[in-house]
């Protein structure tokens, strides 16, 4: 029997729904958002699912990689087209979202997206943190420059003359 699984992932719990090839619901439930708990739930409720689908989100890359290490191939689909379909339902719950994701898995409506490696995601976090810190430094320099301008304090050579590691002009000793 062909089975399709939809996973609606949230921070605390993950709703799952298992459907057969004709669209009948075989099982549904909620488990903790933990790869081992999901593995046990899927093992108990489905024999060999043809396609397991979850939508993109903050935990989707981690969960897809962790379930892949346990031997479960999971496809991550783009959340925007899935959300467009989910808006049409009247009663939006996690269980209904999981059922709709299982239906999307059955019909193949959404294409899977690439899940980046853990190293790539860590590099992205570091680059975003660096960009944030550079922006904060630039904003602080701008605000402090406005304060000095307000008090009519002039830097010899302009404000840029004391950036990039050189000491501010008011801290240098006169020669």
Brief summary:
The chain is α/β, with parallel strands linked by helices. Helices cover about 45% and strands about 20% of the residues. The protein has a five-stranded mixed beta sheet with strand order 3-2-1-4-5.
Observed structural traits:
175 residues; alpha/beta; Nucleotidyltransferase, domain 5; 5-stranded mixed sheet; 5 helices; 19% strand
Topology, element by element:
Layout: E1 3-9, E2 13-20, E3 25-32, H1 35-45, E4 49-55, H2 60-69, E5 75-77, H3 79-86, H4 94-107, H5 118-150
In angstroms, what separates the terminal alpha carbons? 88 Å
Number of strands: 5
For the sheet with most strands, the description reads: 5 strands, mixed
Q: What number of structural domains do the residues give?
A: 2
CATH class of the largest domain: Alpha Beta
CATH topology of the largest domain: Nucleotidyltransferase, domain 5
| Strand content range | 15-25%
Tell me which oligomeric state these chains represent. single chain
The unreliable regions are: none
Share in helix: 40-55%
- Any idea what the shape is? elongated
Number of helices, where a helix is a run of at least 4 consecutive DSSP H or I residues: 5
Mean pLDDT: 82
Q: Can you tell me the CATH architecture of the largest domain?
A: 2-Layer Sandwich
* Overall SS class: alpha/beta
What value does the Rg take, in angstroms? 26 Å
Provide the succession of SSEs. Answer: EEEHEHEHHH
**Order of neighbouring strands in the sheet with most strands:** 3-2-1-4-5
């Amino acid at each position: 029997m062909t089975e399709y699984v939809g996973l609606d992932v949230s921070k605390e719990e993950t709703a799952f729904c298992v459907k057969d090839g004709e669209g009948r619901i075989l099982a549904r439930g909620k488990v903790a958002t933990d790869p081992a708990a999901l593995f046990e739930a899927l093992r108990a409720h489905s024999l060999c699912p043809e396609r397991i689908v979850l939508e993109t989100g903050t935990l989707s890359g981690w969960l897809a990689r962790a379930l892949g290490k346990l031997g479960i191939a999971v496809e991550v689909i783009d959340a925007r087209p899935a959300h467009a379909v989910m808006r049409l339902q009247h009663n939006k719950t996690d269980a209904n979202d999981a059922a709709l994701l299982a239906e999307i898995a059955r019909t193949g409506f959404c294409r899977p997206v690439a899940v980046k490696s853990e190293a790539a995601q860590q590099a992205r976090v570091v680059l975003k943190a660096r960009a944030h810190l550079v922006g904060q430094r630039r904003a602080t320099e701008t605000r402090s420059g406005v304060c000095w301008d307000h008090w009519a304090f002039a830097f010899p050579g302009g404000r840029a003359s004391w950036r990039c590691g050189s000491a501010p002009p008011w801290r240098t000793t006169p020669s």
